[in-house]
Amino acid sequence: MTAMAMDMDYPALLPEIILLATAVLVLLGGSFLPRTRQHPTRWLTLGALVASAATGMAAVPGGPESIFSGTYALDPSTAVVRMAAPLATLVVVLLGRHEFAGTARESETYALLLLATLGTVVIGGTTDLLVLVAGYLLASIPLYALIGLSRSGMAAEATLKTYLIGALSGVLLMAGVAVLTAVAGTSGYAGMTEALPQAPQAAVAGGAVAVLIGLTFKAGAVPGHFWIPDASQASGIGIAAFITTVPKIGALVAMGRLVALMPATVDVPLLVAVLAAASMGIGNLAALAQENVRRLLGWSTVSQVGYLLMPVAVITRSEGASVALLAYIVFYALTNLAVFAVVACFPRREELGDWVGLARGHPWLTGSLVVGALSLVGTPPTAVFLGKVAVFTVAWNGGMSWLVVFAAANTVLSLVYYLRLIRPAFHPAGDCSTGLSTAPREVARTVVATAMVLGALVLAAGAVGAGIWFAVAG
Questions:
Q1: pTM (2 decimals)?
Q2: What stretch of H or E contains 72?
Q3: In sequence order, what are the residues at sequence separation of 6 or more whose Cβ sits closer than 8 angstroms to the Cβ of residue 297?
Q4: What are phi and psi of 207, to 5 degrees?
């Protein structure tokens, strides 16, 4: 077998092939099934997501580090994205069961979720700017349709805003790709690492800024964040959980790869640190004023991206920054989905005041909500606490002490609105909560079970992670 043939390793792309093939099958299958009986496409989607994650985790170590002429990496970062993105989407399908099942667009919803997940995986795994653009478009275009599935005036407005911001971000991304490819003479990261130090600094800086700003749309960071609160509020709960969780998994890994290949003559880490600080500050301050639960969680995810950008800013300066980023991504995805799972159990409780009396009627679900909210703050012994300890440590070791202090202050500030989220649950129920005290009948038992399981996993991940941390440190 020739070296070129070994490089064109199609079996190595099995996780991505499964997602693409299933999206096509679901779309075609939904065309032949009755509109009110498309549940086989749901089971096919769930099976494909499990299979994609399993094959991604089962990738044999010690093989080639990249395939297809160095355009796609087979490294731990790609493995984590291959695992986390499909599993997070699987949870979304479970949470949105009462929203998707029996609708006229059920199969199309699953196909769009699969394609958006595939785009996320491609973004996280690629090491070529041209493939990055393709992944960006594949991950972005399905979002517009998913947000608009609610068919309300608010959803139409959110879809338009998402499209406009996504289009502008995409133009910036492609402009940056064009500049960097032109000055480097190649679009591959390996070649760019050697060529960019000799390229004009102004062109490199401009291209890097454009690409990173473009990716903030997918990551949900400032300045590409404006669509997230509106989309979270206007779309269905399952879709809101998806857009606040899955896209940033691939986008943040992609940003880390880009920062790592930039020459030291251009201070790209400082730009990322500024974006991190802006995302934390703006997200937390905006969340303080929110009364709508999903809008609050939308601003929360903007602030969380700020913490996730901290290891990206020091990925070339601090040992372990990449591991800290991957750990925080997994812990955040688990925690954010746990909170949205509880919200999915009570779709009519849209405002904070509607959560009054929840603890008395649903103590276990309230426990999951409390665990998830306190984990997002970074309270021990929850999962995100370990993530914050890791990213704070690598940022401090990387010389970003000012960013760590700013992040710590924002963590304290975030406690205010997360307490606003859980405090009403422990207030006595009044007349205003009539009709809201119990979960609606249309909410499947699997949604309630998912919420409880995810809440338990948030605690378990924190405890297990802490044990591993102390064992390694000792």
A1: 0.94
A2: strand 72-73
A3: 232, 240, 244, 336, 339, 340, 343
A4: -65, -40
CB neighbour list of residue 387: distance below 8 Å, 6 or more residues apart:
307, 324, 327, 328, 331, 332, 378
What pLDDT digit, counting tens, does each position of 414-463 carry?
999 999 999 999 987 654 444 444 454 556 688 999 999 999 999 999 87
Q: How many whole angstroms separate alpha carbon 324 and alpha carbon 282?
A: 23
Quickly tell me which residue has 């969780």 as its tokens. Answer: 245
Which pair of tokens denotes residue 455? Answer: 């809440």
Cα separation, 372 vs 391, in Å, equals 19
For residue 97, give the amino acid letter: R
Q: What is the length of the chain?
A: 474
Nearest to 114 by CA among 145, 160, 151, 74: 145
**Residue range 383-419, pLDDT digits in tens:** 999 999 999 999 999 999 999 999 999 999 999 999 9
Start-to-end Cα distance in the chain = 47
Nearest residue to 244 (alpha-carbon basis) of 192, 293, 312, 186:
293
Nearest to 211 by CA among 261, 253, 175: 175
- Scored b (16 or more CB within 10 A) or e, 27-65 reads bebbeeeeeeebeebbebbbebbebbbebbeebeeeeee
Residue 292 φ/ψ, nearest 5 degrees = -80, 130
Q: Which of 378, 323, 260 is nearest to 80 (CA)?
A: 323
Contact 236, 150 (CB under 8 A): yes
Do residues 121 and 88 touch, judged by C-beta distance below 8 A? no
Tokens of residue 279, six digits: 């995302």
d(C-alpha 432, C-alpha 417), whole Å: 22
Does residue 6 surpass a pLDDT of 70?
Answer: no
CA distance 228 to 244: 7
- DSSP-derived 3-state class of residue 128: strand
| CA proximity to 277, closest of 321, 309, 300 | 309
Which residues neighbour 219 within 8 Å (Cβ) at sequence distance 6 or greater? 247, 248, 251, 252, 255, 305, 308, 309
Which residues pair with residue 109 across a beta bridge?
none
Read off the amino acid at residue 33.
L
Give the whole-angstrom CA distance, residue 65 versus residue 43. 34
Neighbour count for residue 440 (Cβ, 10 Å): 12
- Bridge-based pairing of strands 66-67 and 72-73 is antiparallel
- Residues 231, 225: Cα–Cα separation, whole Å: 11
CB 177 within 8 A of CB 189: no
In whole angstroms, give the CA distance from residue 359 to residue 125: 43
Lowest mean pLDDT among 102-106, 300-304, 378-382, 442-446: 442-446
